[in-house]
């Protein structure tokens, strides 16, 4: 545990910088995965003129501000989503790092966070939860938790993770079978990953994360219908709400669960 306030601040700042860099890569993934393009090659380039982006123009957050959201070569506008993803990932990485500090489970939860940011944006833009991401992230998260369990002797937490992953998958699969239009199969597969991570913490975190995901979805979806932004029959991407519920449970779940048990 990091007791010194200065060291905690430094720890959070280091992971915030790491998050900015990771967020820059996530923008590449968000753009290319739905288009079935490689996330490695070619190097980053302008979607308008396809000119390679110079290193000086690829500094997270800062480059977008300096260029005023436009390509240096052709002036094509660069979406504000790019700096928002970078900044959001930086903030979340700092929060996750301060939540887990030097726990060996930290890498698994950082990977989860990065994947949830990516999946949420893709689902908002394309209404899909890409298998290409889940088939990589779920096994990698499981492997990282296995390493954490082996080092810290947390075999009970690992076993609970496996059972929670299966339970979350099964629960949302039932919802999907009852209402296919309201719950996509991509959300069901995502639930496996969420159960895997939340199960490491406790069964209470699993229940809270999924409950908050449905609560956020109901509140925001209802508001969109009432305001006329979405029609009653129009689909609303659900992965961002599951992601928000999961991250809320990870970062603030224990105080919420403690408050609930005192009621």
Compose a concise summary of this entry.
Helix content is 70%, strand content 0%.
How would a crystallographer describe the biggest sheet?
A: none
Helical fraction: over 70%
- In total, the number of strands is 0
Q: What do the pLDDT scores average to?
A: 92
Give the overall shape, derived from the CA principal axes: globular
Total individual domains: 2
- Provide a count of the helices: 9
Along the chain, the helix and strand elements come as HHHHHHHHH
For the termini, the CA-CA separation is 30 Å
Poorly predicted sequence stretches spanning 5 or more consecutive residues: none
Structural class: mainly alpha
Can you describe what's shown?
The structure is a single chain. The protein has 263 residues and is mainly alpha-helical. It has two domains: 102 residues, no CATH class; 160 residues, no CATH class. Helix content is 70%, strand content 0%. Helix 1 crosses helix 3, helix 4 runs antiparallel to helix 5 and helix 5 packs antiparallel against helix 6. The protein is globular and about 55 Å long. The model has no long low-confidence stretch (mean pLDDT 92).
List the helices and strands and how they pair.
Elements: H1 5-32, H2 62-66, H3 81-100, H4 106-126, H5 131-152, H6 155-178, H7 185-201, H8 203-226, H9 239-262
Helix pairs in contact: 1-3, 1-4, 3-4, 4-5, 4-9, 5-6, 5-7, 6-7, 7-8, 7-9, 8-9
């Amino acid at each position: 545990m990091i007791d010194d306030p200065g060291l905690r601040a430094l720890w959070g700042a280091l992971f915030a910088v790491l998050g900015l860099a990771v967020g820059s890569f996530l923008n590449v993934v968000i753009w290319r995965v739905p288009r079935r393009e490689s996330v490695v090659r070619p190097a980053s380039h302008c979607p308008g003129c396809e000119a390679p982006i110079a290193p000086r123009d690829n500094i997270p957050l800062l480059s977008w501000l300096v260029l005023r959201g436009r390509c240096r070569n052709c002036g094509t506008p660069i979406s504000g989503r790019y700096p928002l993803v970078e900044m959001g990932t930086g903030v979340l990485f700092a929060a996750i790092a301060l939540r887990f500090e030097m726990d060996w489970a930290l890498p698994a939860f950082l990977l989860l966070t990065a994947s949830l940011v990516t999946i949420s944006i893709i689902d908002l833009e394309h209404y899909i939860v890409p298998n290409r991401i889940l088939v990589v992230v779920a096994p990698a998260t499981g492997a990282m938790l296995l390493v954490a369990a082996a080092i810290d002797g947390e075999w009970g937490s690992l076993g609970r993770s496996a059972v929670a992953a299966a339970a979350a998958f099964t629960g949302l699969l039932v919802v999907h079978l009852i209402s296919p239009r309201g719950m996509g199969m991509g959300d069901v597969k995502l639930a496996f990953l969420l159960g895997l991570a939340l199960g490491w913490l406790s069964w209470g975190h699993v229940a809270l994360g999924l409950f908050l995901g449905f609560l956020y979805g109901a509140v925001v979806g209802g508001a969109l219908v009432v305001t006329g932004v979405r029609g009653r029959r129009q689909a609303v991407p659900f992965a961002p709400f599951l992601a928000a519920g999961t991250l809320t449970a990870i970062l603030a779940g224990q105080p919420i669960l403690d408050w609930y048990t005192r009621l």
